């Protein structure tokens, strides 16, 4: 009797420590992974909250953003100050922004320029792409207006680690950057000096290849008209879509076929939709946000036309001056000109819209949706 009584506390502990009482943990993990809202699991108990961030649990998606410090605006009569760059992740379970671990010191992030005294009302682009579950910093300018990045910096959210990618064959700025099928593409742009060779070139880096040995040169572009400013190369149905000018100016579009390694002109009926930032949901459905009107449109390939997505009342006002957009799981995440991050649920009818509160004193430059970041410190 005494021996049996002595065993009772440990038996109770074993039951208490189980994820779901009466089930082996590996079965419990499968059951819990079917819950669509991770925040519900986190609210139940500490053990389930730990599970959410463990390697055994399928990573839920989180919002990642490149910020600059908006509190460093100059005083009247003084020159512009180059703000510091910060990478942060918004955890939907805790509803908090967490800083990413520091990246490697090469290239030094403080040398990447966002504001420059030569450009009074223009911010220099800092280009990031999200591809194959990774966040990749790929292009920017330094104080001398030369390329600030000689090789990409790659962040893996699941391991919460940075690595350096292979050197870029022709480092550049003001280029077209994008991804398609787990491959990064960098096209056109400028080096330290303008070069027609660089302006017509395109290179790719396959992040699915674990060796990541080198960038591969591809068939060059037909002209140099895509080196005027930073461009999003939108991955869509095994093609890259590029438009050379932002805003209301006359534009030219190009399409690169990643399978045939060939270029073609963009049809006019597709080009007219580029009235603001454009993205592709799962590289399949094209969405645009009109930076003047704030309207959301979806491209109908069969009819070769853009149709407007109905949003909630006054939703267009929230989306005016859209600067960048990304899409995943039926939602668009938009950065607006007034420094907000706005989410649009395009599955709902009408589309629902809400904002994500950003850290005080920070201004978003680009936003991405990736697997949650590892959190070994969760308690």
TrEMBL record:
<protein>
    <recommendedName>
        <fullName>F-box domain-containing protein</fullName>
    </recommendedName>
</protein>
<dbReference type="InterPro" id="IPR015915">
    <property type="entry name" value="Kelch-typ_b-propeller"/>
</dbReference>
<dbReference type="InterPro" id="IPR036047">
    <property type="entry name" value="F-box-like_dom_sf"/>
</dbReference>
């Amino acid at each position: 009797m005494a021996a049996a009584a002595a065993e009772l506390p440990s038996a109770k502990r074993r039951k208490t420590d189980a994820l779901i009482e009466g089930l082996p943990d590996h079965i419990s993990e499968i059951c819990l992974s079917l819950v669509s809202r991770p925040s519900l699991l986190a609210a139940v108990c500490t053990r389930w909250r730990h599970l959410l961030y463990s390697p055994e649990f399928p990573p839920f998606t989180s919002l990642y953003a490149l910020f600059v410090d908006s509190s460093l605006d100059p005083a009247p009569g003084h020159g512009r100050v180059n703000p510091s760059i910060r990478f942060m992740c918004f955890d939907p379970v805790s509803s908090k922004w967490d800083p990413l671990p520091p990246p490697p010191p090469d290239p030094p992030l403080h040398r990447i320029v966002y504001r420059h005294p030569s450009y009074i009302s223009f911010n220099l682009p800092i280009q990031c792409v999200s591809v194959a579950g990774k966040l990749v910093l790929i292009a920017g300018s330094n104080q001398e207006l030369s390329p600030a990045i000689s090789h990409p910096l790659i962040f893996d959210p699941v391991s919460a680690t940075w690595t350096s990618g292979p050197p870029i064959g022709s480092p550049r700025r003001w280029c077209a950057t994008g991804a398609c099928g787990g491959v990064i593409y960098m096209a056109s742009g400028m080096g330290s000096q303008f070069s027609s060779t660089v302006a017509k070139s395109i290179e790719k880096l396959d992040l699915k290849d674990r060796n990541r040995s080198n960038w591969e040169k591809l068939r060059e572009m037909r002209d140099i008209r895509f080196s005027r400013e930073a461009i999003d190369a939108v991955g869509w149905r095994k093609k890259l879509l590029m438009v050379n000018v932002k805003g209301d100016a006359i534009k030219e579009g190009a399409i690169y076929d990643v399978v045939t390694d060939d270029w073609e002109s963009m049809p006019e009926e597709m080009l007219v939709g580029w009235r603001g930032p454009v993205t592709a949901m799962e590289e399949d459905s094209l969405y645009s946000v009109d930076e003047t009107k704030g309207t959301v449109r979806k491209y109908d390939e069969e009819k070769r036309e853009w149709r407007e997505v109905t949003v909630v009342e006054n939703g267009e006002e929230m989306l005016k001056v859209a600067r960048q957009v990304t899409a995943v799981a039926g939602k668009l995440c938009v950065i607006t000109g007034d420094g907000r991050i706005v989410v649009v649920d395009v599955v709902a009818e009408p589309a629902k819209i809400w904002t994500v509160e950003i850290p005080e004193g920070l201004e978003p430059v680009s936003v991405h949706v990736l697997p949650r970041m590892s959190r070994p410190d969760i308690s």
